[in-house]
Amino acid sequence: MKQRIGILVAVMAVGLVGVSAAFAGSVTATATVSAGNSGNLALSLPSNPSISSTLDGTDQTATYTLPLELDDVRGSGAGWNLTITSTAFTTGSHSLANSASTITSLTSACVAGGTCTNPTNAISYPLGLPAAASAPTAVKLFNAAASTGMGRFTITPTISVAIPGNSYAGSYSSTVTIAAVSGP
Fold first, then answer.
1. Which stretches of 32-175 are assigned E, i.e. beta strand?
2. Which residue from 23, 108, 120, 131 puts its CA 20 to 30 A from 57's CA?
3. What is the pLDDT of residues 42-88, one digit of tens each?
4. Residue 134 and residue 147: Cα distance in Å, rounded?
5. 3-state SS assignment for residue 67
6. Residue among 108, 116, 112 nearest 65 (CA)
7. Which pTM value belongs to this model?
């Protein structure tokens, strides 16, 4: 009886080894990665910036920043660019020169918590910010060459505004228009 149990256990062990080999195989796992934002670029604008200056008879320069958030979650590597235009700073009665605003510098950083492909930018600074009573044709503010700029970024241009010493006092405003466009 003891001999039969030992043989039965040995037969069961051989049988299990044979069973596991009979069921070996491989599978192919697939991952579907869909474009976010319905396949579009997304651009978030900051709240309205403000600057102040006190006239003292000398020419002055005031600066402000525009921390923009750009999301390129299209997954295409097509690249993109930001364009910018503006209206002239005006009180309604008095205006600063159409050439008063200049983009003096720009920083770009990946938003925390994400992995990005840093944009390769071909735009040089300083860059004149176009302005007129009605906003003129926009210019490229920043760009991401093909296969760069993928992910979520904070892009922050610094804009300087020239205020001549002989300016009229008042509350001046300008409408700045920024757009995200596909392609470098």
1. 42-44, 60-65, 68-72, 80-87, 101-110, 127-128, 131-132, 139-144, 151-163
2. 131
3. 989 888 898 999 999 999 999 999 999 999 999 999 999 999 999 99
4. 35
5. coil
6. 108
7. 0.79
